[in-house]
């Protein structure tokens, strides 16, 4: 460790600032990869600019892989500088968390570990599912055991159950934060009005607000641009989108081979519209000499909020290809073409408000213009 007193004369010690100790007595970060880091929402938490989705860790769901391939994916993501890992208590019936519990090893504290609760964990038990305090407490303890850790960095409500009062959810999550079992909380698959209500309530009561929002967002599904993305921006909530490759349909493999197999085919996501959008993604990729998956992820990363995409990769080869998105920036022209190919109707009231010709607005230097439709 560097000597903090070096170069300081005996009479001058009282001139030292806390910063002197910080810069001279902490080890250097020595980050060797090209990965950059972002602050997640209204927090000091530093996460890699891509998160690794661990939903395919474990073969139980029929879309995942065994422990050896999961380990290769995990190691390659860490090697690339990734520190943000996302799982859930129900992924591969708990196997995803169990694998991660093994993979984390001595690296645990270097990782921002995120998991979720809500999905059903027992059959014929009405309390082993949903957002309730009972299911939250039981789920967090089971996740901690499987993950072999005593804290979770980011704990997600997996999806809104429409049954539990939002006060119960926010108070329960805040209790977990105060107990040190959870450091931050986030919310996934929930309408914008519920998240707004939850964070306003948390702020008024001094409880921990949601700092992260997990939503489905890709070139084949842009509906979150109507309410959820503007809300995240207004509340300074970090967005970690899933399904950024449309389950695989934006990798171009179904455009190139009408018989190609994969999850998107299995789940009925290969349709005329998706293939048309995939075609434009492929054309942009060919111009840039890169791959369609990289272009599709780059488009999400250039979206209208603080966005940290969840990279889904079943195999090491897929992960290596997808990580290449970090070197890619789409030009305005390429982005505009992809926007046009994937456009959606804004819906009410955005369509009506954007038609209002407001001459006066043009005279105002509005730093909140991103809110304007
Ligand atoms: N909050 C939620 O409700 C929610 C829901 C879903 C996922 N998630 C999270 O988001 C993460 C990613 O989601 P997702 O898996 O749905 O994302 P996705 O990126 O849309 O799809 C990933 C799938 O696409 C295929 N693929 C990926 N890269 C490829 C490549 N380079 N070439 C060819 N095929 C490729 C693979 O499936 P095949 O090889 O089978 O084609 C892979 O499993 C999950 O791991 C999970 O952490 C959250």
Question: Would you kindly provide a written description of the structure presented here, covering whatever features stand out?
Answer:
This protein has one domain (31-342): TIM Barrel, CATH 3.20.20. The longest helix has 17 residues, at 272-288. The strands form two sheets. It has an eight-stranded parallel beta sheet. It has a two-stranded antiparallel sheet with strand order 1-2. The chain has 14 helices and ten strands. The chain starts with 17 loop residues before the first helix and ends in an 18-residue tail after the last helix. Helices cover 38% and strands 11% of the residues. It has 373 residues and is of the alpha/beta class. Helix 2 packs parallel to helix 12 (316-323), helix 5 (166-178) packs across helix 6 and helix 10 crosses helix 11. The protein has helices at 18-25, 67-79, 95-104, 133-147, 166-178, 192-205, 228-235, 253-256, 263-266, 272-288, 292-301, 316-323, 332-341, 350-355; strands spanning 37-39, 46-48, 51-53, 84-86, 112-117, 152-157, 182-188, 210-214, 238-239, 310-311. Helix 5 links the parallel strand 6 (152-157) and strand 7 (182-188). NADP nicotinamide-adenine-dinucleotide phosphate (NAP) binds next to helix 9 and helix 12.
């Amino acid at each position: 460790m560097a000597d903090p007193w070096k170069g300081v004369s005996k009479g001058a010690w009282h001139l030292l600032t806390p910063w002197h100790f910080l810069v001279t007595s902490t080890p250097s970060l020595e980050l060797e990869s090209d990965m950059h880091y972002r602050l997640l929402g209204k927090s000091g938490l530093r996460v890699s600019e891509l998160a690794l989705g661990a939903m395919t860790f474990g073969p139980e769901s029929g879309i995942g892989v065994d422990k050896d391939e999961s380990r290769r994916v995990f190691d390659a993501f860490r090697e690339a500088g990734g520190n943000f890992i996302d799982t859930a208590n129900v992924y591969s019936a708990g196997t995803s968390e169990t694998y991660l519990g093994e993979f984390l090893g001595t690296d645990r504290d270097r990782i921002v570990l995120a998991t979720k609760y809500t999905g059903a964990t027992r059959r014929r038990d009405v309390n082993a599912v949903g957002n309730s305090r009972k299911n939250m407490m039981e789920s967090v303890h089971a996740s901690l055991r499987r993950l072999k850790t005593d804290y979770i960095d980011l704990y997600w409500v997996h999806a809104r159950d429409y049954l539990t009062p939002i006060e119960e959810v926010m108070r329960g999550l805040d209790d977990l934060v105060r107990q040190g079992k959870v450091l931050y909380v986030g919310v996934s698959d929930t309408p914008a009005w519920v998240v707004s209500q939850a964070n306003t309530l948390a702020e008024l009561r001094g409880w921990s607000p949601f700092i992260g929002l997990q939503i489905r967002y890709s070139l084949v599904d842009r509906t979150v641009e109507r309410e959820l993305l503007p809300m995240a921006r207004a509340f300074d909530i970090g967005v970690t989108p899933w399904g950024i490759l449309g389950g695989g349909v934006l990798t171009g493999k179904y455009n190139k081979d009408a018989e190609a197999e994969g999850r998107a085919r299995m789940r009925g996501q290969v349709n005329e519209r998706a293939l048309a959008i995939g075609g434009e993604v492929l054309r942009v990729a060919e111009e840039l000499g890169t791959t369609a998956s990289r272009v599709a992820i780059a488009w999400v990363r250039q979206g209208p909020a603080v966005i940290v995409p969840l990279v889904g990769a079943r195999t090491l080869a897929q992960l290596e290809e997808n990580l290449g998105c970090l070197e890619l920036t789409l030009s305005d022209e390429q982005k505009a073409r992809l926007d046009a190919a994937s456009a959606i109707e804004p819906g009410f009231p955005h369509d009506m408000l954007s038609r209002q010709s407001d001459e006066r607005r043009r005279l105002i230097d509005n730093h909140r213009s991103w809110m304007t439709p």
